[in-house]
Amino acid sequence: MERYFQPEIECAPREEILRIQNEKLLKQVRHVWDRVPYYRKKMEDKGVTPEDIKSIEDLHKLPFLSKADLRDAYPYGLLGMDLKDCVRIHSTSGTTGKRVVAYYTQHDLDLWDDCCARAITAAGGTNEDVCQISYGYGLFTGGLGLHGGSHKVGCLTVPTSSGSTDRQIMFIQDLQATILCCTPSYAAFLGERMKEMGLGPDDIPLKAGIFGAEAWSEEMRHDIEATLGIKAFDIYGLTELSGPGVAFECSAQQGMHINEDHFIAEIIDPDTGEVLPEDAQGELVFTSLDKEAFPLLRYRTRDICQLTREKCSCGRTHVRMAKPRGRSDDMLIIRGVNVFPSQIETVLLNHGYAANYQIIVGRVNNTDTLDVQVEMTPEMFTDNLGDVEAKQHELMDGLKAMLGIKAKVSLVAPKTIPRSEGKAVRVIDNRKI
Amino acid sequence: MSVKQISVFLENKPGQLNKMTKVLADKGINMRAISLAETKDFGIVRMITDNLIEATTVLKEADFIASLTPVLVYRVPDEPGGLNRLLQAFSDAEVNLEYMYAAPEYMVFRVANTEKSEAAVASRGFRSLSQEELSEE
Fold first, then answer.
1. Nearest-CB residue to B11 (from A378, A381, A413)
2. H-type alpha helices, A105-140
3. Is the Cα dihedral A228, A217, A238, A291 positive or negative?
4. Considering A297, A325, A353, which residue would you say is the last residue of a domain?
5. Where in the sequence is the domain holding A1, given as residue range(s)?
6. pTM, whole model, 2 decimals?
7. Closest CA in chain A for residue B61
8. I need a surface site. Which of A244, A344, A421, B111 has the fewest CB within 10 A?
């Protein structure tokens, strides 16, 4: 039976959600206008005042915020409250080299915890569960976000943070952890280590995992589910909007429900900024409705995905977002073709390789080169050179079919691709452009 | 008696083969025969050792990927026509050789059907060596 943390909101009729969104948006636009001069100036430049925003129908009139704005406004430019009312900051991992600092009041933390609690409950979590948080604690939002959610649900929370893999496995076994929260690449790594220790899915009590903070493929989900003997749930979020829990997966595992009482989602054309129909593929844009300290309006996530309002079998009414095809900054342009690391991962897993890979992009004689390094596995190896080469070529053909461009495949020795306890480093771009 | 050959995956870059031989050397494992097949990107070491179980264990512990393949090992007389007589026996039995390699005293053969091929050649007086024999010397 599906469980909800806040059923009256999670399953509210569409009209009720719209009513909440309209009411909160008007208040939030006024708050930003009054408290955030940086955004007020953007509105003035566009000739928009709070009076022009009468409902979410008028949302498109508001200017966008981009990562560049967050950098320009660093560290206090987008602050919507006095610092004395703020109780915490978090910061992005800076994977794209641009660090962002976000502020939270106690109210902001409470609503973020609620969002994470909805995600844990949707994954089957109750106060009878032991929830191990193996996301990093600290500036990164993963650890403390799920930690807060786990408390709200009433799980026994095990704040292991990331790292010390053998100790993680020991805690899972000794404390009978039933829910694991970490990045999907770390979940895969834990599974790999368990196999080495001779442990199978039946040797651990885990039943569910909540994995996010990086793009992962459906194939990787199947792998992790089989290795750990769990149901693996995706969770989505950005530090800019609070952290994990902006959207989360339910038992249907058909897209992530966006917490629409807290965030309005739009899909736009990333090139023109034009608002697209929700079911079109485009860039996801979020307006935060409740956040006091870091109230971002129309923030461009750079995540490419699409939304659906089709009725979900879980009973929740909030719109669902597809797994982002990739962040537009993860997107590589190789010989003029758009390539997402997630597409490469799909091909690798479909060909029987593990998700231990690295993508090396280079440039030789003004032509881009794409080299996919993947670790050899015992299952793929034989004494026959021809067989191994044939598999290498099959993989190259698979990549060509998926990407539309040729990629070189290098088979590398096991454990030579660095493992990550947080976000995996999948791409090394050596091009000097 | 067929013997288990250990095949090991190696990346084609400096020091890889040495890394593997060091692992075996440190454990006092003796290689009876070794060959290296390579492509531009990777190589496969095929070898016979004096201690199969120990060798596969230490290789695995050192994160090498190794697989086992049955092969036939013969002592070939060091004299003109020595190898020819053995190969004639294989030809007459229509055995297809996938690959072969030599050590000072032995020839190692990978064939399509190990047991059948071994029996066919045995009828011509060629006896393949056992794992024990390779461990003892």
1. A413
2. 106-122
3. negative
4. A325
5. 1-325
6. 0.74
7. A196
8. A421
